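Severity: low
Component: inverse-folding endpoint
Summary: output formatting inconsistent between runs
Steps to reproduce: submit the following structure tokens with default settings.
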């Protein structure tokens, strides 16, 4: 779809002179005069898009901060409905007269969009949508409509910008996240001319098996960011051709995860999980990536606080941080409990539930879950360490020591997990007043890892 747009150079000398005066008037803040100069140009040359945009800028300046005592613009737009159907080009001027006093009027811009589409003026239609968004910057329905139209006219850059604005308003909008991927894929294809230049022939790409194989080979750990983006472009084409393919959505999620774009990865993993009818590995991915997003948000809020602890923004960040911590804990407990109910014999899920309950401040509830989890050799040590922390929280220190001593005896080498076991053991023994045993636990760490936490200072301070 194309539109013959009149440029300034194409104008007649008379119209060009008027436009130059109008542009100068806008710069001098004489916006009302500019509107008077521009309206007759637009009436005579409806394809002069630059003039239409300048007219709207002038109207916005002229009426900035003003409130109408009686708004009759909606009624005026309704009266133009019949004319819009019969003469879509002619009605554009009538709408500009309304917009000259109310530049962001949704009804007028909506009719301009419809008329421009009917008149095969896609750039003018796109401009009308942009003005609708400016007038209602949080209206998700308008933004989705605009983004879809930008994709339809093969303008993926504008579509990406709108989809990203949608996500600023609603970060959980999965359709917008998928839209970003599709738009990025289209943009990549346009740049590489994979689609023959028509902006939408994705299926032709899928027929190119050599290219498909080459891009599939890029899906490896050592791929560069550029190679992964190229793979995303190919997968975006596959996705647009068949959005209900589980494997395609999963692979897109994996690539976004490797690119550290966890928000986009979560969107595709969630969609793949929904399509899969409960695939356990995809469910794990959804929970994992969701948790990473929470961690990123927590880190951001903490950075705001650290930057200036006394600022008003820091105080607001502290409140948000507290709320997010609580929501995260509740979400983790609820999701892990639900997974245990579906798979009660899975020890890993029992361990996850136990640790989440402990982190939520419920050590008593956590204990039976962790006791069942420790019967599995693969997670036995981690479960015993978590159990010890539960006993410590309940001041049942002797039971905590027993768990940790047993765990330490079962680990042959002083690896990371054994260091943690000995460290927690030492702290509990110190609480119990068993100084010699506390130092013995810490000395085992000291002898192989001088820099582990505060072990060196506490061991040396005992002499």
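Observed output (run 2 of 3):
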């Amino acid at each position: 779809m194309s539109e013959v747009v009149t440029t300034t150079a194409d104008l007649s000398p008379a119209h060009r002179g008027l436009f130059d005066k109008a542009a100068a008037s806008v710069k001098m803040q004489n916006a009302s005069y500019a509107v008077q100069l521009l309206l007759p140009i637009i009436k005579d040359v409806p394809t002069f898009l630059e003039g239409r945009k300048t007219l709207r800028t002038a109207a916005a300046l002229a009426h900035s901060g003003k409130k109408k005592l009686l708004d009759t613009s909606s009624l005026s737009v309704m009266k133009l409905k019949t004319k819009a159907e019969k003469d879509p080009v002619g009605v554009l001027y009538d709408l500009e007269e309304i917009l000259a006093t109310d530049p962001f009027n949704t009804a007028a811009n909506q009719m301009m969009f419809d008329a421009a589409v009917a008149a095969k003026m896609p750039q003018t239609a796109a401009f009308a949508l942009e003005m609708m968004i400016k007038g209602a910057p949080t209206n998700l329905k308008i933004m989705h409509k605009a983004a879809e139209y930008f994709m339809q006219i093969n303008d993926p850059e504008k579509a990406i910008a709108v989809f990203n604005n949608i996500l600023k308003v609603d970060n959980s909008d999965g359709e917008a996240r998928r839209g970003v991927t599709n738009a990025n894929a289209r943009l990549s294809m346009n740049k590489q001319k994979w689609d023959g230049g028509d902006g939408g022939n994705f299926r032709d790409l899928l027929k190119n098996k050599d290219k498909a194989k080459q891009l599939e080979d890029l899906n490896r750990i050592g791929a560069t960011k550029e190679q992964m983006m190229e793979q995303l472009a190919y997968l975006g084409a596959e996705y647009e051709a068949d959005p209900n393919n589980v494997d395609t959505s999963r692979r897109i999620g994996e690539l976004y995860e490797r690119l550290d774009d966890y928000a986009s990865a979560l969107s595709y993993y969630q969609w793949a999980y929904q399509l899969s009818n409960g695939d356990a590995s995809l469910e794990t991915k959804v929970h994992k990536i969701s948790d990473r997003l929470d961690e990123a948000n927590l880190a951001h809020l903490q950075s705001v606080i650290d930057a200036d602890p006394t600022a008003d923004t820091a105080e607001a960040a502290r409140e948000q941080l507290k709320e997010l911590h609580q929501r995260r804990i509740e979400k983790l407990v609820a999701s892990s409990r639900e997974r245990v109910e579906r798979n009660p014999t899975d020890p890993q899920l029992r361990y996850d539930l136990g640790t989440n309950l402990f982190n939520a401040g419920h050590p008593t509830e956590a204990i039976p879950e962790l006791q069942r989890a420790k019967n599995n050799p693969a997670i036995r040590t981690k479960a015993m360490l978590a159990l010890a922390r539960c006993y410590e929280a309940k001041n049942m220190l002797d039971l905590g020591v027993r768990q940790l001593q047993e765990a330490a005896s079962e680990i042959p080498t002083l690896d990371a997990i054994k260091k943690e076991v000995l460290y927690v053991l030492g702290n509990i023994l110190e609480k119990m007043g068993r100084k010699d045993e506390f130092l013995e636990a810490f000395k085992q760490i000291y002898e192989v890892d001088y820099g582990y936490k505060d072990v060196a200072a506490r061991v040396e301070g005992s002499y």
